[in-house]
Amino acid sequence: MSDSIDVDRWRTELESKRAEKDDFFADHPQSPIPPEERDDFAGLDYFEPDPDYRVTATATVHDDPEVVLMDTTAGREMRYLRVATLEFELDREDEDLEDGTFELAAYQQESPDAQPLFVPFRDKTTGQQSYDGGRYMELEPDRDLADGDEIVVDFNLAYSPFCAYSDTFDCPLPPEENWLEVAIPAGERHE
């Protein structure tokens, strides 16, 4: 973990967010869990909270964002703008990886409204311990990012899209530039 936080407080907040999400999935009318399966829903599966996967990334902002067409689970395409590239380091125990520096692109939909940064990604857990369509993170910087700004990327908050639970949803698939050649055993599991 690259910044100093109160790990106990961070863990308590993370567990609280997970419990809230489980309640939503179990009871809310807009839950992605099909109604006939909600009575048997015992909560989502998660990797153990690991502060090593809460990293500080350095942003490179794209002043003229390029349009990226993301394929979706229903075979359509969705338009996003690549607004930033986030570079971060992971302390890896895997000796096969010479360099622990990675990049993820952050996107927004074409919209005049302020939106969180959308960071879909695949990693070496995809299709094994996590959903085969990849996982998502949403980052909400407290102001517009500028080149060199730092932003916290907490993979413990990575989640499976709604289409992991029901075919009625159509979800964007992470583009190849966001396929990490490393396992990220943090966030939601989906076996």
UniProtKB/TrEMBL annotation:
Query: Which parts of the sequence are annotated with region: Disordered?
Result: 20-44, 113-135
* Residue ranges of the TM segments: none
Pfam families per the UniProt record, alphabetical: DUF1684
Protein known as: DUF1684 domain-containing protein
From the broadest rank down, the organism's phylogenetic lineage runs: Archaea, Methanobacteriati, Methanobacteriota, Stenosarchaea group, Halobacteria
